[in-house]
Amino acid sequence: MNAQELLDKIKELPNKPVDVPTPPAIELVAMVVRWGRHLKQWKATTLADFARVSLSTVERVERAKKVSDEALDRIAQALGHAPGAFTTPSLPIGPDKAAEQHLVEAFGHLEPVAVSPMKTHKAIRDAAKCDAYLIHRPGVPDTHDDHIANLGEWLDLASFILSDIVEEPLSSGRGRRQLYNDILARVSELERRGLTVLSGVMAAPQPGMPDWKVAIVSVTPRLTDPGAPRRRRVLVDRRTVAVTPGWLTDD
């Protein structure tokens, strides 16, 4: 059953009494699990490993077949959902509204951004030339806070030094190379600590600023996100890169 067939089945689900709590339809669970796995760029075997269920269980869920509530809870938690997300009865809201809330709200604001490992001078230069940066770090333990913050400070420094604000920017190639190497050393430190660092540039036009760009820096643990080094795109919520009203004022 492909994604379109699942969507068609979700639309065809009969309406249930609005005063009777029911668990999510298995077709809706199948779509959320399938999309969630693809967002992480996990193979079905990877999800099975992290959820501690069999591969056949994952395949059954994604085909909208019945599996145990325990297996659904494990899969939900592996994908970052709360326990019971796929099993707890709630008051029905109708298949169309359910699809809108669970799918459109979850994925409707996402935009794919091309990324690659942050291992080159070009990656650092591209990030430093952006108007802002966003560090996305899902599932990264707090023990890495200081090192991630340090990387952010170095990116701030590079952006400032390479801007037109500084009267005497690093004009020599050697000076810039040393700056880039210093930043790459911080990236290497994060990698030694078991993290994957990817970066890319997202066009994020703002009112009055059509050329606004944001550097996207993705930091994820290799232990829980082994597919990250091969990732070529990340999905970014457009709302997270919006400039707050009044940000450019003196108030």
Helix content: 40-55%
Q: How can the largest sheet be summarized? A: 4 strands, mixed
Proportion of beta-strand residues: 5-15%
Q: Please tell me how large the radius of gyration is.
A: 22 Å
Strand order of the largest sheet: 2-4-5-3
Organism: Mesorhizobium sanjuanii
InterPro entries: Cro/C1-type_HTH, Lambda_DNA-bd_dom_sf
GO molecular function: DNA binding
Protein name: HTH cro/C1-type domain-containing protein
Write the layout of secondary structure elements.
Elements: H1 3-12, H2 26-40, H3 44-51, H4 55-62, H5 69-78, H6 95-107, E1 110-114, E2 116-117, H7 121-128, E3 132-136, H8 145-161, H9 173-192, E4 195-203, E5 213-221, E6 233-237
Parallel strand pairs: 3-5
Antiparallel strand pairs: 1-6, 2-4, 4-5
Helix pairs in contact: 1-2, 3-4, 3-5, 7-8, 8-9
